[in-house]
Write a structure and sequence with these properties.
With 424 residues, the chain is an alpha+beta fold. It is built from nine helices and 24 strands. Strands 6, 9, 10, 11, 13, 15 and 16 form a seven-stranded antiparallel sheet that branches. Strand 1 and strand 2 form a beta hairpin.
Length: 424
């Protein structure tokens, strides 16, 4: 079946077969990899029901598959992707704009049990077409039997009545009811890792990775109607009239070192194959003294990430310059070690090196919005507007995040989008 542009289910048409000519790709917004944890089985709660909102972009999609996993990403030692500690049984269903609920299957089964540490597993393709610029929802039901299971929940995405989660001992009745779960104990949501499908026209889709700055820490009070947060999330809304499909693979506290590592970043790197574009938001955490990295280390980590993206089929790779990191005494700022504005600090040398790598085969552009928040020409290394743009000298707040999203990210994405078609 397919949806017409009013969101109604109609009979199957040639649209389903026509879309198969293009590469399968990320087809909707608000894909989330498994970040911070939520304790599920505390002796009372053994199930969690997540209701998440998603939206297609410039292209309609068919053959839709929803990705789930059983790992979480630690933002502190031992870092990287780690098992949750127990098996999780997961069921998924798609809810269309008209309220139609379509159960998803895994190799024909109504659920799948994922062992601790499982990477991303996709549902069977759905014979459903969702038009461009169309909202839909996913309901995901996770169950555990062992005690003290901590599932990987997402960061900063909960929206009342749209992106919600409830936990309890038996959520089967809520599972069978269309719409968001209105009862049960409130819980952190555990939405799909990714939603992929076959587009009916050429379209760009992003995977973006980074630390708490890119994730949106400090930007929690004014989510967009679709739940986007952080400068990329906000900037991906209404690009040439459409939202940009994406997977958000960020995690507060994380480093390039652990994302590029053979084991601790492999589950998310597997998702590169479904994105046409990749933006890397590291590496402020790699620069702190406790990590002990040199400039050569940072260069090795960055080029390793870019190379993996390119090998996986990503057409355009971008990297974000590192912002200031200071301590405040009133409004007096003191740059952190490694962030001194002297031309030889890790931050200065890494940022300068990024520009020298553009066009050499791995890096296609540098995303540099420092002038929007840093006094680059008059007083580099310091926040231009002081605490008006950051609450702690490290993280953007809502004002600075929104400024970057509207004045840099949105125009950047509009330019990339206008360069379609991309050679697939």
């Amino acid at each position: 079946m397919k949806l017409d542009h009013a969101g109604k289910v109609v009979s199957n048409t040639a649209s389903i077969t026509a879309i198969n000519a293009l590469r399968r790709t990320v087809c909707a917004t608000l894909g989330r990899t498994q970040g911070q944890g939520t304790v599920l089985n505390d002796g009372t709660n053994t199930q969690v029901l997540t209701y998440s909102v998603h939206k297609t972009g410039k292209a309609g999609f068919g053959n839709i598959q929803i990705g789930v996993a059983n790992f979480r990403i630690l933002g502190s030692s031992p870092y990287g992707e780690t098992p949750n500690g127990g098996d999780v049984t997961t069921s998924v269903q798609l809810e269309l704009a008209d309220g139609t609920v379509i159960p998803c299957t895994f190799n024909g089964a109504s659920s799948i049990t994922l062992s601790a540490g499982s990477g991303v597993v996709f549902t069977d393709p759905l014979n459903v077409y969702i038009p461009p610029n169309t909202n839909f929802n996913v309901k995901k039901w996770d169950r555990v039997s062992a005690t003290n299971i901590t599932l990987g929940s997402s960061q900063i995405i909960q929206i009342t009545n749209r992106q919600v989660a409830r936990k309890g001992a038996d959520l089967s009745a809520l599972w069978a009811t269309p719409g968001y779960p209105s009862t049960g104990t409130s819980s952190a949501p555990i939405p799909p890792v990714a939603i992929i499908g076959s587009p009916d026209s050429d379209v760009i889709s992003f995977l973006y990775i980074g630390d708490s700055i890119m994730d949106g820490a400090g930007d929690t009070t004014g989510l967009t109607p679709d739940g986007e947060t952080g400068y990329f999330g906000r900037g991906s809304v209404n690009v040439n009239g459409y939202n940009i499909p994406h997977i958000k693979a960020t995690r507060g506290g994380e480093t390039m070192k652990h994302f590029v590592h053979t084991l601790t970043g492999s589950r998310r790197r597997d998702l590169f194959r479904y994105a046409t574009d990749f933006l890397c938001g590291f590496a402020t955490n790699d620069m702190v003294n406790s990590q002990g990295n040199t400039l050569a280390d940072l260069q090795s980590y960055a080029t390793g990430i870019w190379a993996y993206a390119k090998r996986s089929g990503v057409r355009r790779v971008g990297h974000v310059t590192v912002l200031p990191r200071v301590t405040f005494a009133g409004e007096v700022q003191t740059p952190a070690a490694g962030f001194e504005p002297n031309g030889t600090s890790l931050r200065d040398t890494f940022n300068a090196w990024l520009f020298t790598q553009v066009g050499k085969g791995l890096l296609d552009y540098v995303c540099d919005f420092r002038e929007l928040v840093e006094d680059v020409k008059g007083n580099p290394g310091y926040w231009k507007n002081g605490s008006a743009d950051t609450g702690d000298g490290l993280h953007l707040n809502e004002a600075s995040t929104t400024r970057i999203a509207l004045n840099y990210i949105n125009p950047l994405l509009a330019r990339l989008d206008s360069e379609l078609p991309i050679n697939r």
